[in-house]
Amino acid sequence: MKPEAIEPFFATLAAANPHPRSELEFTNVFELLAAVLLSAQATDAGVNKATRSLFARAWTPQQMLALGLDGLSEAIRTIGLFRTKAKNLLETCRILVEQHGGEVPRTREALERLPGVGRKTANVVLNVAFGEPTMAVDTHIFRVANRTGLAPGKDVLAVEQALLARVPPAYRRDAHHWLILHGRYVCLARTPRCAACSVQRWCDSAPAGAASRIRDAEAV
Fold first, then answer.
1. Is 2 a catalytic residue?
2. Of 2, 44, 70, 120, which residue is the catalytic one?
């Protein structure tokens, strides 16, 4: 993607969805952290189905610890890898209580020291909870960044760094939301919906002649 295409690319996504939000359901920062931890190799819809009842019973680290391993495992058993995730979440709760006063820390270093919390999870919490312009690169963002030519990279860290370098500051806080949603609903892995894509004119992989067809249509 040419540098001059990046501004209109994001302006178009922003105009269609001015205030993008995570599709995970949560009411506080701890619930967000727990939901993102549980979402690894699972869909947001699947996580939400489990956490609706879970968060009604436990919405703080202390309450989650009180459920115990068996109680938590049973609550999230519909989520993939639920046994490992339950152990990680409970240990994370213990650390939050013992080392952070029951609060979710606001630094990447502290977040990444929590069991089950990697760079992507930390980026989501920093962005969604604390408004930092981080890029949480998941499979959707990785695909969109490479397919469009926006931020090509061989691995997620390379794509994250390329996005931070190329996305204009005005769009940086919400960019990962727009890219995730675009990858989830339009730029699909196997059969991308190019005909329905609002930003295909700037995409390096757009079908031949797409940009000229759009210009002709707009001129009518």
1. no
2. 120
Q: Is 138 a catalytic residue?
A: yes
What is the per-residue pLDDT for 154? 97
Average pLDDT for 178-188: 97
Residues of the chain with CATH 1.10.340.30: 29-129
Q: Which one is catalytic: 2, 87, 138, 155?
A: 138
The highest-level CATH class for domain 29-129 is: mainly alpha
DSSP string, the chain: --HHHHHHHHHHHHHH-SS---SS--SSHHHHHHHHHHTTTS-HHHHHHHHHHHHHH--SHHHHHHHHHHHHHHHTTTSTTHHHHHHHHHHHHHHHHHHHTTSPPSSHHHHHTSTT--HHHHHHIIIIIT--------HHHHHHHHHHSSS--SSHHHHHHHHHHHS-HHHHTTHHHHHHHHHHHTS-SSS--GGG-TTGGG-TTSPTTHHHHHHHHHH-
CATH 1.10.1670.10 segments of the chain: 3-20+136-219
Q: What is the pLDDT of residues 187-196, one digit of tens each?
A: 999 999 999 9
Residue-wise pLDDT for 25-57, tens only, equals 999 999 999 999 999 889 999 999 999 999 999
Model-level pTM? Answer: 0.89
- The architecture that CATH gives domain 3-20+136-219 is Orthogonal Bundle (1.10)
